[in-house]
Please model this.
Amino acid sequence: MTIAFKSKWLPAVVSGLLLTAAFPKMGISPLAWLALVPLFIALRDLHPKEAFRIGMIAGLAHYLTLLYWVVFTMRTYGYLPWWQCVSLLVLLAAYLALYFGFFALALTHLCRKPLHLVLLAPVFWVALEYARSFLLTGFPWGIVGYSQFNRLHIIQISDIFGVYGISFLVVLFNAAIYMLLLFLAQKKWRGYPVDRKQALLATLLPLLLISLGLIYGNLRIKAMDEAVAGASSPRVAVVQGNIDQARKWNPAFQIGTTKKYAELTLSAVPHHPDLVVWPETATPFYFEASPKLTRLVTDAVRQAGVHLLVGSPSVQGQPGHYAYYNSAYMVAPDGRATGRYDKVHLVPFGEYVPLKRLLSFVGKMVAQVGDFSSGEKGRTLAWGENEPPVGVQICFEIIFPGLSRSLVKNGAGLLVNLTNDAWFGKSSAAYQHFSMAVFRAVENRRSLVRCANTGISGFVDPAGRIAASTALFEDAVVVRAVPVLTEKTIYTRMGDALPIACLIVMIALMGWSVRRVRQEAYGGVLLKIPDWVKRRVSRMVDKRR
Model:
């Protein structure tokens, strides 16, 4: 391995590792604002094909370290051998690294001048993050903007641009820092020097946008605090049962598990909750289809005299034509189930097998889950006489912004995330999952309640503050007053306008580039035509005249 090659891949690896360190558990969020600079350094004079490979290396370094917990999950609950678990992680990381590769290719192919880099790097990055959110069912885990979940003032622009607006600012700042370094070192980008005017513009642009973002953030936080002070605030209790995943679906523990949740619920009654929330599949049986076990739940609800939102698998249909759902039921104080939400975005190979006819040989990667059907997008659950409906998202649905938007557009005054993160153990995945939920609260200006079987459970206010959170793998009951707002933000109404615009710009530039290359190639062919052929063609044209 040559020193020259090392000089290219080592900075790429550093970028990937710095980016990972910006996310929980490490959570050194300021690193995200500098993490891509080493990658830019590595790309400076590379051919686009080489740049793609270097981008892939950066992506692999990032995703192998960000998603390392996949091995634990597959090994512990999928019962797969180590080599298969590691292979799955590498395949997933390689797929996600492709987006890094295309980002690097686009920079070196389309950003011929230094200023182009500053202006287009955030556009390309956001476009590719957005594409990753829906291609192959979508996997928007670890979008760069999520690393800033605890930077309260900067994330307020999410109610206009979503989490992608934060990614845009972070990448813009990285590109500006790199351009300033080029100017100070008197280095060139793709053969073009950086003059003083360009360096000044590259410095002022992100500083201006970040300053405006911070000013806006300060104003919005004050506005949210005023709105919350005058809002209706029902009391909500989250019940973290801390049920061992290895025992959860064992029939011998069904009654014990249900009784434990019932007892924890009754312990919350002295705090006068209006709504009690149990996590995803809290009941290890089909609710309403198992009368004796269901009665344990409804008796506890009647005794407590509260509404209960409970996660449970459900089944509909006739023998031979059953449909199974990962659901959430709203149970009234009299024990009646008044509404049901069915999970919309299912986990591929965990809750269903995509392209089942073509991939019939592929088993589900995680044991103890059903072959579920998808529910209706945007369905909300009514509760109480004077309270707006509840918008439920189950498990990793919370990382898809469009699902929260559809719930709020349909009138949800409160967002509730039911999940079971026991699959992740004590890895960083549970912390990453919780951090992403913060943005759904800010984007839609709704309080968010999160209830997890083994944690992290908690409450997020409409400004994005984490009002309370629980520890992992502990029994917990937390009761909080939760402000309910009804305003619809620009992001709720407009959606992902920013990333869509970025994707359109990127596609347009790629199309223009392909056309230009074809024209140059065609022109080059004409120039290589021998003179005698040109003369003969000329004589033929003259004769026809």
The chain has 17 helices and 13 strands. The CA atoms of residues 150 and 175 lie 23 Å apart.
